[in-house]
Structure to design on (530 residues):
């Protein structure tokens, strides 16, 4: 790196690649903090150096450009290093969910064809048990210290040189495989190139309005595209990302870090907002630094959003998308949330997921692929430069969801005359009861109005009379009580009676994935076993 000829150095890497951004930040923001993880505070210059060292290490191990490097870990500083190595070294990052069953991990790791696997300390035992079943993996590298029969990530950084690698990634080079959650079947890998991920990064940075003095708290897992995609808009503008040291969401620890680090931004899912607001000591924390709370991954119940706005003020913004879409599809800015003092017809926008994002075309179509009019539910389809290239090594699956350049999301929704999109539900979650269509989210919105309901999930289960009946699983707010009859009667007061639950179960908790999304697939399987 030549600081003297800085403008020449800035043109070292191809425009439109993450390699260019990593190097640009190292030159222009060299001493600014790029990442904070516990006691470790890493500048942009140091991050570039760590990235280079890891690239040289992987090349020494025989890993080549376009080879897949897998990651099985919870969030940590080393996670960012591996992304950096993929960005500049021409490798393809393939993050896996640590909560998956060993059989599922075996399938995904083999499907990815990963040559190397980076392993977090909590996953070492599981990976060692898997070794005979994942023969293509040649190198195992441990995060956060040494592990038996694995190369230490820390040792690789210490033993390799920090000079720029002789690699020239292009905009259309593959960079990332992000896996679908598998809530409706076997997970599939959405393949992204540099330019597709860069397009989404620019869209998010622009719509959020982030700048180099902002500071983002990373609590969602980086193996999920929602969590991963929120890191890089801040990195892109030279801002800092603080990575949380937690394997599961800790509301008190999160609030403490927001206060201590004076965070301006945090991304959450609705269940995490519930957890934070329910803390008895919530008001003791100083959260005045917050500019934006971005919510995504699953729909935010309107009553919960109202509560958040009343307590925290106009800091909420929403993004809608999915693994295959980039993920950014639509955006509901903070300004649009400032309607609590407006007439009911204007407050309705709080139940929308916003208008199509800049650079995104979205349509809503019927089963024949014809566009529907405002107010009519249909499937949301998307076209942008951010959507995945394809499902990794699954051409037939790809052709089923990308048709004439339009990604068919499988999400049902409608739009209004101003272009605001309202998610109704997943196409596969729709309940057909007595010949009538019922969308679970519609019922859940009513349930969340009940003062005793903390969390709710609605599914369809087999019924001899109705074929499918509307069933609600409910977690009650601490210190409250209710009955099945009361819940059903409450719903019938606020919606057409056939949409109201015909059965209700009170549970201690609802099954969730690491992003906090309620796993309705698990709920349905529970009743199929009965």
């Amino acid at each position: 790196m030549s600081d003297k000829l800085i403008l020449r150095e800035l043109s070292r890497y191809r425009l439109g690649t993450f390699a260019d951004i990593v190097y640009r930040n190292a030159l222009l923001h060299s001493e600014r903090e790029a990442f904070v993880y516990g006691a470790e505070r890493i500048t942009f210059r140091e991050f570039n150096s760590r990235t280079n060292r890891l690239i040289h290490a992987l090349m020494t191990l025989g890993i080549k450009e376009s080879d897949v490097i897998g990651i099985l870990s919870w969030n940590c500083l080393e996670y960012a290093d591996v992304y950096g190595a993929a960005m500049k070294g021409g490798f393809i990052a393939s993050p896996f969910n640590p909560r998956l069953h060993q059989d599922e991990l075996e399938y995904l790791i083999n499907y990815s064809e990963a040559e190397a696997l980076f392993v977090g300390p909590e996953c070492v035992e599981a990976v060692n048990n898997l070794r005979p079943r994942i023969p293509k993996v040649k190198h195992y590298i441990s995060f956060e210290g040494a592990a038996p029969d694995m190369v230490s990530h820390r040792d690789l950084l210490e033993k390799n040189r920090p000079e720029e690698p002789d690699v020239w990634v292009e905009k259309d080079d593959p960079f990332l495989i992000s896996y679908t959650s598998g809530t409706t079947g076997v997970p599939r890998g959405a393949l992204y190139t540099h330019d597709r991920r860069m397009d989404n990064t620019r869209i998010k940075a622009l719509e959020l309005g982030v700048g180099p003095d902002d500071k983002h708290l990373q609590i969602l897992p980086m193996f999920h595209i929602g969590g991963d995609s929120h890191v890089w808009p801040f990195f892109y503008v030279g801002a800092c990302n603080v990575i949380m040291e937690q394997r599961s969401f800790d509301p008190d620890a999160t609030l403490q870090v927001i206060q201590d680090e004076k965070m301006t931004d945090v991304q959450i899912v609705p269940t995490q907002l519930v957890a934070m607001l329910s803390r008895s000591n919530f008001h003791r924390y100083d959260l005045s630094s917050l500019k934006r709370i971005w919510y995504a991954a699953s729909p935010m119940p309107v009553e919960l959003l109202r509560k958040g706005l009343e307590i925290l003020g106009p800091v909420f913004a929403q993004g809608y998308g999915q693994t295959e879409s980039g993920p950014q599809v639509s955006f509901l800015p903070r300004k649009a949330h400032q309607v609590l003092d407006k007439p009911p017809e204007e407050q309705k926008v709080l139940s929308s997921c916003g208008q199509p994002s800049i650079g995104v075309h979205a349509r809503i179509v019927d089963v024949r692929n014809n566009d529907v009019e405002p107010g009519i539910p249909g499937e949301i389809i998307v076209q942008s430069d951010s959507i995945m290239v394809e499902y990794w090594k699954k051409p037939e699956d790809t052709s089923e969801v990308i048709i004439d350049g339009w990604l068919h999301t499988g999400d049902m929704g409608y739009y209004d005359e101003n272009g605001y999109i309202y998610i109704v539900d997943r196409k596969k979650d729709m309940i057909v009861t007595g010949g009538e269509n019922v969308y679970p989210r519609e019922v859940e919105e009513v349930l969340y109005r009940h003062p005793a309901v903390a969390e709710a999930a609605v599914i369809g289960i087999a019924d001899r009379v109705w074929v499918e009946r509307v069933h609600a699983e409910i977690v009650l707010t601490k210190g409250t009580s209710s009955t099945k009859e009361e819940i059903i009667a409450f719903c019938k007061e606020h919606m057409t009676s056939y949409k109201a639950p015909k059965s209700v179960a009170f549970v201690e908790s609802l099954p969730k994935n690491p992003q906090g999304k309620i796993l309705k697939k698990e709920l349905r399987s529970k009743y199929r076993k009965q």
